[in-house]
Structure formats: C-alpha cells, structure tokens
Amino acid sequence: MDPISDIFRTMHVTAFGLHRLEATAPWGVKQENETEGKTKSSGKKIPPTDLAHFAMLSRGNCWLSVEGIAEPIPLTGGDCFLLAKGTSIVLRDSRRTRPRWTFREIGASANGNVALCGGGGAPTTIVCGSFSFDRASLRPITQLLPNFILIKADQARTLALHNTLQALASEMAEQAPGSGVVATRLAEVLFIQVLRSHIASEPERNKGWLRAVFDPQLGTALGAIHDSVKTPWTVESLAEAAGMSRSAFAARFKELLGQTPLEYVTEWRMQKAMQLLEQRDKKLIDVARLVGYESDAAFSKAFKRVVGANTGEYIKRGFERSGSAGTSEAF
C-alpha cells in the first residue's frame, strides 16, 4: 500500500457544526485562534479538540483574509477552503468592511442550521463546518494538512471533488428529510478530496513528507513500511528496498523527514496501535503482534515512549474524550 493511501485509511474524520451562513452586505466575520483548553464542571482541564474548518461559497462573492497571506483573496461561487486549527481569517463582503462577528457567535445564533448576519444588502451564502480527528489520526493529518488550502471553482482538479461541492451545497439548501446526515457525510468526503487535490498539486510534492513520498528511492522504502508495518525492518533492509547504500539512505531519510528510518517505523507502528486500541476488541498481545512486537512488554515500553502514556491510560483518556465529544467549538 502506498503511504498516502495508508494515511487516508488510518484517518478517522468527523464533520460537525455544519450550517449555512446567509450574509447580506455589509457583513464581516472573523475566525479566532483556538489555543485554550476547556474546563469541565469538575474543574479539570480538557485539552483543546484538534480541529480543522472549512467553508464553501455557494452564492455571491466575498473577500477572504488569511493570517500570513499579505493580500485579501477574492472568492466567488463554488470556491472552497480548508483551515488547520489556529489559523486566523476574516471573511467579509468588502475589503473595507470591519468584521463585527466571530464564527463562534454566528454558529451559536443559528436557527436550525441557518445563521443570518449583515445589513440587508447584496446576499452571499456560505456553507461552513468543522472537522474533529481521533487521536490516532492527528500525526498523519499534520503530515498532510497545511494551515490553509484554497480550491477555486475553476481549478477543481477532479470531477469527483466538483460533484461533492455541488451535492453539499444542494443538501444544505434544500433541507429535505435526512439532509443533515447526508451533508455531514459529504463534508467528510470533501475533507479527503480536498487533501487529495492539494497533494496532486505539483509544488506541494516538493515539501516535507510529501517530498519523501514522491522521491523514487525513499518513496519505495516508505511504501514498504506502510505495506507491512509488522515486518522487522532494519536500516539495512530499508536501504536495500530503496536501492541505496545504508549510509546514503539513512542520511537522505533524516534530511527529508527529520527523523531516522527506525524512528519513523516505530512512530507509524504506534499510530496503527492507537487505532487498534481504540477499537477495544483485541487483547494487548494481539495488538503488539499486529504492529511488529513479539511481546506485550516490549510493545508497552515503545508505546509509552512514543505516545507519552501507557496503553491503559491511553484507553481511559479515550473514554474521557468521547464523553466530551459534544463540547467542541464549531466554525
């Protein structure tokens, strides 16, 4: 299995907080950084949920300002963008309009799944929503998700992505029975398709982890790891798969990925292990063997080192996290 397909397969993405923003000029909405954890009624701090946000313009025009990008970006019907957590933006009808609301305030005021704002002028319709990820998905997603991805309507790279955008806009507009469920599933498909379109962009293939994946030699070694994570890989065997000397392979791997080959193998094994543990249907020794360890003791030691918690603590945190799943802030 190629590494990108393996990461898509490992991802567990949940869309929530979908709503339709009906804005009339003048209007301006901002997205603030999510940096602070929440507090339970018991006073215990809950780590902030790891999120991404998306918005799609289904009618009208507006301007998008993104933290770190000097010039505002004009948006028109069919344009879509994806934001990583912590990226500040402003959406508004005109470059001169000051934002009066936050997305959080707009979402809280929504009636059903429709939110209204503005002064009664030219209309704009924006479909908004958020994504949350299970803990096993966080590291793979950070390897693929930049702070900001923009997909222009006239640049949609696949018919499938274009059709998903149209179908999502239709479901959010019609509100037929079951539309909420369908829209949520379409949004989750949209997340994968936007990432896939981003990866297909030639400039992105020359950055970080993707550069290694598309490197003819390192990509072969990464493919071997992802194809069989439980194989007892060594630097020598991975170098052989890549068709390189041991020293050249190790140096090139560290240069492109920022970690040694065996650190990468161990980290990906733990990603798979987290996914298996969250299913809660296997014994610890079975999970250990599925990710390449002959004893649960050796597996547990590696898990604690990489994840920062033992397996029992990790599973317990999973229950606590699922119990607070409804507290995430939507876009």
Name the CATH superfamily assignment of the largest domain.
Answer: Jelly Rolls
Which topology of the largest domain does CATH recognise? Jelly Rolls
Find the count of extended strands (DSSP E, 2+ residues): 13
What is the averaged pLDDT score? 86
Please compute the radius of gyration using only Cα atoms: 22 Å
Domain module count: 2
Query: Which architecture of the largest domain does the CATH hierarchy give at level 2?
Result: Sandwich
Overview of this protein structure:
45% of the residues lie in helices and 21% in strands. With 331 residues, the protein is α+β, with helices and mostly antiparallel strands. The protein has 2 domains: 198 residues, Jelly Rolls (Sandwich), CATH 2.60.120; 114 residues, Homeodomain-like (Arc Repressor Mutant, subunit A). The two termini are 34 Å apart.
Tag the structure with descriptive keywords.
single chain, 331 residues, alpha+beta, Jelly Rolls, Arc Repressor Mutant, subunit A, 2 domains, six-stranded mixed β-sheet, 13 helices, 13 strands, 45% helix, 21% strand, elongated, transcription regulation, sequence-specific DNA binding
